[in-house]
Predict the structure.
Amino acid sequence: MNDLKQKAIALGLCKPFQEAWSDDLVGMYKQGATWCLGKQFPTLGDMLPYDKMLAENDVYNDRLVNLLLTGETYILNQCRGSVEINDYNVAGLYVGLDSIINVNCKDNSILTIECYDNTVLRLKVAKNARCNIWQYGNSCIQILSGNAKIYDKR
């Protein structure tokens, strides 16, 4: 865990996060997800020893996913697959680092997505569903049906 902290500090981890550093890798990652994705930290190699624990907490790396979204989910490091949100559910999705994901927003759902480096999103958005996307880096968003609002942060 100390190796990860030293790598983070070398990348410019702020003092408050350095002081708050703990063994709660998932909690720290989720709190600083935007910073982590922007810095491409931790690497897939850094995360693999914790893969089971991460997946149990909705952080997925280098795998095929087929998920029903109900909360905040992180799909990273060359994941492939699909996600769906339905009913009146509200969820957040972070996708990045060479992942290719099909997204289906059904019914009256609301989905917020942050899309990072070299990611491909293919979206279907139902008439009454809402999807807002913050697009960073070299990502590609394809809206196959319906409407989504894209905020270009590249």
